[in-house]
């Protein structure tokens, strides 16, 4: 049986473990924190990622329903710019990160071993094995250890790595009673969004331009339209994180017997809501390419061919997402009043054109 070490037990790492397990791999998952689990708030799971999880046997991801009330883009005073129904956009499943993590790890079987509280210090590889800390050996190592990946730094020490986006983010979960379809509100250098989770609570997030490391709170949104102040006030805890993505061009996702996955490979700004979904899709692609080369994985050439195919599929796709997320972030966070007016007008006209086209 082929063996793999997965470094990092976030969404991408545990999905990779399940995907490899279903291909008859023996998997060891290493997690530096003392307990397995996810922190954070809500997450959007788009149809492509939902399909992957369903194929892996993950249950409990209810299909998203169309909100009873309008959703879309608004101005800080509450006026609509464009409604989601006019754009005909896809609707993702909205779920808490911890709940999604639990649903995925529920699929762990005897082939998956988890070692929490394990700190990866050294990684070595040769033509036959990859070794972690001089003691754990496997045929393959999957680096799912996040944007500040130790594995990526080991493989590519000259790579610039994370870059600050220019804005910070606040996130929370509000257990409030709202009759609102949600969406996003775009201001000048600030943005606020919210959506109902499948458990009935509301996930919200706000972003604001400011220097990295500045200590602040979401008070800038106190004067914005209802229900934004109520969502913030109804949150027991508010998370605050500066937003980084990875420098372009991205490094190769494979080197020798090591594959990069998720934020370790392609951390992106959250503007498209595709980061975790991309990690899920990485896991599926990696397992699929390894499966297609199952008969030759015993040789270094067979494994190299599988990982080369994985890199060829996923690096171009995720590079586009990093660029699109970064570009949308620049548009959303602009402080220029003229550009903001033009931006909102273009969204409004675009929504009307899409709506008219849909009625033909």
Brief overview, please?
InterPro entries: FAD-bd, FAD-dep_Monooxygenase_BioMet, FAD/NAD-bd_sf. This protein is α/β, with parallel strands linked by helices and about 350 residues long.
Topology readout:
Layout: E1 3-7, H1 11-21, E2 26-31, E3 42-45, H2 47-55, E4 72-74, E5 80-83, H3 84-87, E6 93-96, H4 97-105, E7 112-116, E8 123-125, E9 130-132, E10 136-138, E11 140-143, H5 150-155, E12 162-174, E13 183-186, E14 190-196, E15 202-209, H6 228-233, E16 235-246, E17 254-255, E18 258-260, H7 263-266, H8 275-292, H9 300-332, H10 337-358
Parallel strand pairs: 1-2, 1-11, 2-7, 4-13, 11-18
Antiparallel strand pairs: 3-6, 4-5, 8-9, 9-10, 12-15, 12-16, 13-14, 14-15, 17-18
Helix pairs in contact: 1-4, 1-8, 2-8, 8-9
Keywords: Monooxygenase, Oxidoreductase
GO molecular function, one term: monooxygenase activity
Organism: Kribbella sp. HUAS MG21
């Amino acid at each position: 049986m082929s063996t793999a070490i997965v470094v990092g037990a976030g969404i991408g790492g545990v999905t990779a473990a399940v995907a490899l397990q279903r291909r008859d791999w023996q998997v060891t998952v290493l997690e530096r924190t003392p307990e397995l689990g996810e922190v954070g708030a809500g997450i959007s799971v788009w149809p492509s990622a939902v399909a992957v999880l369903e194929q892996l046997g993950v249950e409990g991801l209810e299909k998203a329903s169309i909100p009873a009330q309008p959703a879309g883009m608004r101005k800080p005073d509450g006026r609509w710019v464009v409604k989601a129904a006019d754009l005909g956009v896809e609707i993702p499943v909205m779920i808490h990160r911890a709940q999604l993590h639990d649903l995925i790890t529920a699929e762990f079987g005897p082939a998956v071993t988890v070692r929490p509280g394990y700190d990866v210090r050294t990684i070595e590889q040769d033509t036959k094995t990859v070794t972690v800390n001089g003691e754990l050996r496997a045929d393959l190592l999957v680096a799912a250890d996040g944007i500040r990946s130790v594995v990526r730094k080991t493989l590519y020490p000259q790579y610039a790595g994370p870059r600050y986006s220019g804005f910070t983010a606040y996130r929370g979960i509000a257990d409030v009673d709202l009759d609102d379809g949600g969406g996003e509100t775009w201001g000048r250098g600030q943005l606020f969004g919210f959506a109902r989770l499948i458990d009935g609570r509301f996930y919200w997030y706000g972003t604001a331009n400011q220097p990295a490391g500045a200590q602040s709170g979401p008070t800038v949104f106190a004067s914005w339209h209802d229900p934004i102040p109520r969502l913030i006030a109804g949150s027991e805890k508010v998370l605050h994180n500066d937003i980084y993505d990875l420098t372009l061009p991205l490094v190769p996702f494979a080197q020798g017997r090591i594959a990069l996955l998720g934020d370790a490979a392609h951390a992106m700004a959250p503007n498209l809501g595709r980061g975790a979904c991309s990690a899920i899709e990485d896991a599926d692609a990696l397992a699929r390419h390894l499966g297609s080369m199952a008969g030759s994985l015993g040789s270094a050439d067979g494994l190299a061919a599988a990982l080369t195919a994985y890199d060829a599929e996923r690096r171009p796709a995720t590079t586009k997402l990093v660029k699109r997320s970064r570009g949308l972030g620049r548009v959303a966070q602009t402080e220029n009043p003229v550009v903001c007016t033009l931006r909102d007008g273009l969204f409004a006209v675009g929504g009307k054109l899409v709506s008219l086209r849909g009625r033909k």
